[in-house]
Specification:
- 60% of the residues lie in helices and 2% in strands.
- Bound molecules: 2-acetamido-2-deoxy-beta-D-glucopyranose (NAG) (3 copies) and zinc ion.
- It is an enzyme of class 3 (hydrolase).
Length: 657
């Protein structure tokens, strides 16, 4: 079998090589380009694009805002009309941009802008396919929004009306019954994936076609191209492997607590963790099982909600407090339009989307936040986080349209979370008069770091693997895509499905980003960047002591560093920004500050894990684990291989003609 496989692989390889020589436009010419190298015409086009794209963005954003804050049928129709207009505009812009030979335009700014325009679009597809992929994605989003699960004790199956946001998430967070958790996990995954599977496969096919026409080998390569760095993949892989030891210590400790709670009939004491026990439908954020894993139960979790209520906080006052945080760093106050038009509370008398978001209306004036703010500690942190996005918008407002964005796709979220690291720690809450207890108790600090680790460290392998999977299926195909998904989750997260999965399922579709065509690796980048930026700002603020106790409040020096990142937007290469940020120490996204932040917890975990008897840090995998998702071993491989071989040969024939 092995021999046959490798022989077959070699043949395919040879055929591919031969083909490569014939079709120079695929492998050599790479990114799509035309013949026009007239600089004057290029600049003229870019000027027009800049002003038209800005006004198009204003129209679409205005329509989206109207619908999100007033969900009527009329507003929905208007929003869809505007979005369709925008898609048409993007297509026309791509066609104009691709007439230029960006690589030979004698102006670096124009060159980069043109390249951004031609590599971030599906417009290379003809009209039919362009419309098809556009509709496929909205159909999948629609299906996702309408999935309803049946409750656990619902014998007559009459009331299958559990929604993701309201019910599924709540049950996964609160229930401690293995049977109920298994049921809900299975319900959600069985209902979301299978109906989308065919659509998703067609989407993969079309996305690849578009990318190939743009000059890439597949859609995954085009997704990574957004980072404008050929070492990007290997750099983040290295960072990921540096974080894994910390993840495995956390994992081992958490598994032990789960084993104590659920026993050997639910999980092995040295094996992977079944995905339904982690308090979250995706197993990406383990905060909800804090009650099971808290290190020092007798030391309460810090929560200033009662104090906020006692002091008579309102949503408005929370936003004013966040504004004061930024002005204390020397940053800008919120403009009058922000206060006039934002939706800071859930309004009465109309239906609204309560998901928190920060908006840039692309006219350099109008910036808003939409949040159904409640007076509690969690929302206080969120308010600071969202306002960081607004600060970013304010500072890069004068850049060209295409540069009004984070330096790379991870920056917006990374910066906003770096701010949250200062705001949510006891030192800061003490300084703003919300917390008067001693912040220097060892047990309280370990509890605090544990709650941060359940959010951040637990998230690292998940944030990393979602796009590893996508790159894989874009490159190697969809034949075993569900098994591939679980293979990655087992290898990187140590997580297995609670029940048997097959290729009729599509469990990755449980994550909306996957079917909504939204890249995910940015969240892994943001996670590392968060600690890296926090570290640099704390240094500038003259902070001494453990990184998790640092608060940059009132530091003009930290503010200057922040401002420098914000005002560049996307105009400078992100590697430049990191080089300046770290005073030349590095130009990569480094995992060290994150490890530094969690160092005290790592020591604590190592101490705990050493003393226990399972003697394994991480997980050992058995056949019974992989049997949960692997297709029955069959002739699948050789069939697949000869199929590829046949296709390759046919192509070779066609191309040689
Ligand atoms: C909500 O939208 C409708 C149009 O569908 C409009 O007539 C109404 O005035 C809007 N309400 C508010 C409060 O903006
Ligand atoms: C069914 O389960 C829900 C929790 O999922 C519980 O609130 C409800 O009381 C249960 N109903 C019955 C009839 O057991
Ligand atoms: C401060 O400590 C007291 C006593 O230990 C406790 O009751 C109180 O909840 C703490 N306050 C906060 C905000 O954690
Ligand atoms: Zn955010």
């Amino acid at each position: 079998m092995n021999f046959v496989l490798s022989l077959c692989a070699r043949l395919v390889f040879v055929v591919t090589l031969l083909r490569g020589q014939d079709v120079l436009w695929v492998t050599d010419a790479r990114i799509a380009k035309g013949n026009n190298i007239n600089l004057g015409e290029a600049l003229q086009f870019l000027r027009e694009y800049d002003s038209e794209a800005s006004s198009m963005c204003l129209r679409v954003t205005t329509a989206q805002w109207s619908y999100a804050t007033n969900m009527t049928d009329f507003n929905k129709r208007r929003m869809i009309d505007e979005q369709t207009l925008k898609a048409k505009f993007d297509k026309v812009s791509w066609r104009k941009a691709v007439e230029f030979d960006w690589s030979r335009i004698p102006d670096p700014l124009a060159r980069r802008l043109l390249r951004m325009l031609v590599t971030n679009s599906r417009a290379s597809l003809g009209d039919d396919k362009f419309n098809e992929i556009y509709h496929l994605i909205s159909e999948m989003k629609d299906l996702y929004a309408h999935v309803r699960a049946c409750p656990y004790n619902n014998f007559d199956k009459l009331y299958c009306d559990l929604e993701l946001d309201l019910d599924v998430k709540r049950i996964m967070a609160k229930s401690r019954s293995n049977a109920e958790l298994t049921h809900i996990w299975q319900e959600w995954h069985n209902k979301v994936g299978p109906p989308m599977k065919n659509k998703f496969m067609r989407y993969v096919d079309l996305a690849n076609q578009a990318s190939i026409l743009n000059g890439f080998q597949n859609a995954g390569e085009e997704m990574r191209f957004a980072y404008e760095d050929e070492n990007f993949e290997s750099e983040i892989a290295q960072a990921f492997h540096k974080i894994q030891p910390l993840y495995k210590e956390l994992f081992t400790y958490v598994r032990r607590q789960l084993f104590k709670r659920y026993g050997p009939r639910v999980l092995r004491s040295n094996g992977p963790i079944p995905a339904h026990l982690l308090g979250d439908i995706w197993g990406q954020d383990w905060s909800n099982i804090e009650d099971i894993v808290i290190p020092y139960r007798e030391y309460k979790k810090i929560d200033v909600t009662d104090e906020m209520l006692r002091q008579g906080f309102t949503p408005l006052r929370m936003f004013q407090m966040a504004e004061e945080f930024y002005t204390s760093l020397g940053l800008k106050p919120m403009p009058p339009e922000f206060w006039r038009y934002s939706m800071l509370e859930r309004p009465n008398g109309r239906k609204v989307q309560c998901t928190v978001s920060a908006w840039d209306f692309c006219n350099k004036i109008d910036f808003r936040i939409k949040q159904c703010t409640e007076v509690n500690m969690n929302d206080l942190i969120t308010v600071h986080h969202e306002m960081a996005h607004i600060q970013y918008y304010l500072y890069y407002a004068d850049q060209p349209y295409l540069y009004r964005d984070g330096a790379n796709p991870g920056f917006h979220e990374g910066i906003a979370n770096a701010i949250s690291l200062s705001v949510n720690n006891p030192t800061h809450l003490y300084r703003v008069g919300l917390y008067n207890n001693n912040t220097d108790i060892y047990e309280t600090n370990i509890n605090f770091l544990m709650s941060m680790a359940l959010k951040k460290v637990a998230y690292a392998p998940f944030a990393y693997l979602v796009d590893q999977w996508r790159y894989q299926i874009f490159e190697y195909g969809v034949k075993t895509m569900n098994a591939d998904w679980w293979e990655l989750r087992l290898r990187f997260q140590g997580i297995v499905p609670p029940v048997k999965r097959t290729e009729s399922h599509l469990d990755a579709a449980a994550k909306r980003h996957v079917i909504a065509d939204m890249p995910y690796i940015r969240y892994f980048v943001a996670l590392l960047l968060e600690f890296q930026v926090h570290d640099v700002m704390c240094d500038a603020a003259g902070h001494r002591g453990p990184l998790h106790t640092c608060d940059i409040y009132r530091s003009r020096e930290a503010g200057r560093i922040l401002m420098d990142i914000l005002k560049s937007g996307k105009s400078r290469h992100w590697k430049d920004i990191i080089r300046v940020l770290t005073k030349g120490n590095t130009d990569t996204i480094s995992p060290e500050p994150m490890l530094d932040y969690f160092e005290p917890l790592l020591l604590w975990l190592e101490g705990k894990n050493k003393r226990e008897e399972e003697k394994i840090i991480g997980w050992s995998t058995k056949k019974e684990d992989t049997a949960l998702f692997q297709p029955l071993v069959s002739k699948g491989y050789s069939v697949g291989c000869s199929l590829v071989f046949v296709i390759n040969s046919v192509l070779l024939l066609v191309l040689n003609m």
